[in-house]
Amino acid sequence: MAPPIRILGISAYYHDSAAVLLADGKLVAAVSEERFTRKKGDSSFPAHAVQYCLRQGGIGIDDLDSVGFYEKPILKFDRILETFVGAVPRGFAQFRVGAPLLIREKLWLDRELRAALGGYEGDLLYAEHHESHAASAFYPSPFDAAAILTMDGVGEWATGSFGVGRGPDMQLLKEMRWPDSLGLLYSAVTYYLGFKVNSGEHKVMGLAPYGEPRYAQRIYDHLLDLRDDGSFRLNQEYFGYVNGLTMTNGKFHRLFDGPPRLPETKLTQKDMDLARSIQDVCEEIVMRMARTVHRETGLENLCLAGGVAFNCVANGRLLREGPFQRLWIQPAAGDAGGALGVAYLLWHRHFAQPRTPRGDRDSMQGAYVGPGFTDSEVATFLAGAGAVYRRIERDALLAATARRLADGQIVGWFNGRMECGPRALGARSILCDPRSPRMQAHLNLKIKLREGFRPFAPSVLRERVSDYFELEGDSPYMQIVAPVREARRIAMTAEQRSLWGIDLLNVARSDIPAVTHVDYSARVHTVERDVSPDFYDLIREFEKLTGCAVLVNTSFNVRGEPIVCTPADAYACFMRTHIDALVIGPFLLDKADQPAWSEGGAWRQQIPLD
Asked: pTM above the 0.85 mark?
């Protein structure tokens, strides 16, 4: 029997660097570099991620048949250089800052990659940025044929594209080009609202329901020329990203009645209204694009990727109102997923391999393709850390954990292999009772250490989703926002209806208030037993005790840090916050039993990953 064809996919040097390993087309491993370095959004070469992928595959670098990089550096260099030249003299400051980095990391990337891979001498191939996004959307999907829509900030030249996938073949048909970009438009408002670009966009989405779309028409009138087919032109007189070092400029600030909000300062009603306005505009553009793609392809399935695909409010509206029958959204839709896309492109194009989708399930394995740890490794770490823990048989452990959740405790849940992508899906999660009306504020302020307005997601048994949410289908990767069922909503009193903005935060909106946002919506995560048996059975145990088949599920981390990867990461987060209990594999730890916390203790030595 011939050895499997092994392909390593890499994304790096912009944000969210990652590595992926395929063996004969099967996803062996996928992980972002940030999980190892603990630097959120780490853009450096994913050395740790590559080491993990090779180790998970049981191979060395010389055993690879090909390495793929998720974009074409020469094309990207052309776009950046042309932008600099076109912006002279205003763009000279940007050129002076960026030119040395561009020459090192774009023009000489082949040499840099081979050196970073330890002198790798095999095939090193490149795909275009939006090809990689499109491939990550279509190839792992359950569909034999589907339309594909990608939307983000910018790749080489493209800022969005659509195409068609059939069997092993995928073709992009049209694209939008720099500097007209839905991702950059949304990021410009993110910047103006005082949040960090490339990581704060989800905060804008979460803030939007507190506001009214008072600025939407101003955006349409001044910032963009939107056409019926969803294409548009941005008025660059209002933006600074082409010829400056900021997203917005003085004219943008005057349009919206003042300078950008300073980070960490109090949010005003204006900020909430602007968040709502850009969210409404984003949804309208996505809906127009989707209708155009449906009309031009005639297909009933749609696959999404690119950073805009993380806008789960737009995704939910597209599912409810759009022309497509079924959606599939790549769980690592951003640049990290580009590593997956280029690996699949090499498998199906370069190696001309067939594709046999299942139809009823994708090939992402629930996204549980990151690092995992054996029980003995976990026990060794816990003993070395001086932790107090008990090993409990599975069913008893699930019952004990469910009891703690039903009693109002917050539980750190570390189970199996880590998820790829930014969502916690029951492998590296913080869990609690959704029935508590104060749990959202408590989680934000005491556990996550983040803004109080941020909503939390429900994990719900797949077969029970329609009992709680207006969602016919599934959302396995927490990428769809759906309304809470009318029967579960709590009507507002006359006094409550007079409240505005952030004052609405503590008004219970349903019988699962901790996961019900102020507009009666929720970002839904559906859980199936054959994909995530331990997490599924934990929710079942909770339902037996409470009658509720839903848990609050948020990522196991605090603000500004990546999701925990190792037992050491999990224990540190557990001890530094108000998490009451920690479950790592078969081990249960209660906070009250633990020794005094030492931030720099010797226990912080990680379990070796290389």
From this structure: yes
